[in-house]
Amino acid sequence: MSTTTNATKVSNDAPSRGTAPAGERIADWADGRLGIYSLAKTNMRKIFPDHWSFMLGEVCLYSFIIIILTGVYLTLFFHPSMNEVTYHGPYVPLQGQRMSEAFNSTMHISFDVRGGLLIRQIHHWAALVFLAGMFVHMMRVFFTGAFRKPREVNWLFGFLLFVLGMFTGFTGYSLPDDLLSGTGVRFMEGAILSVPVVGTYLSFFLFGGQFPGGDFVARFYSIHVLLLPGIMLGLVVGHLILVVYHKHTQFAGPGKTNNNVVGMPLLPVYMAKAGGFFFLVFGVIAVVAAIASINPIWAMGPYRPDQVSTGAQPDWYMGFSEGLIRTMPGWEINVAGHTLVLGVFIPLVIFPLVLVAIAVYPFIESWVTGDKREHHILDRPRNAPTRTAFGAAWISWYFVLLVGGGNDLWATHFHLSINAITWFVRVGFFVVPVLVFIATKRICLGLQRRDKDKVLHGRESGTIKRLPHGEFIEVHEPLDQEALHTLTAHEQYTPVEIGPLVDENGVERKATRSQKLRARLSKGYYGENNQIPKPTVEEYKEITSGHGHH
Amino acid sequence: MSSQDIPEENLPAEQATDEAHGAVAVKGEHDNPFADPGLPEHEHRIQDIDERAAKRSERVVAMLFTISMLATIGFIAAYLAIPVDKSIYVFPIGHISAMNFTLGLTLGVALFCIGAGAVHWARTLMSDVEVAQDRHPIEAEPETKAQVLSDFADGARESQLGRRKLIRNTMFGALALVPLSGVFLLGGLGPAPGTKLRHTAWKKGLKLVNMNTNLPLRPSDIAVGSLTFAKPEGLSEDAEDFQTVMAKAALMLVRIAPENIKDKRELAWSHEGIVAYSKICTHVGCPISLYEQQTHHVLCPCHQSTFDLSDGARVIFGPAGHALPQLHIGVNSEGYLEALSDFDEPVGPAFWERG
Question: Any transmembrane segments, and where (chain A) (predicted)?
Answer without folding.
Answer: 54-78, 122-143, 155-175, 187-208, 220-245, 274-294, 340-364, 384-404, 416-439
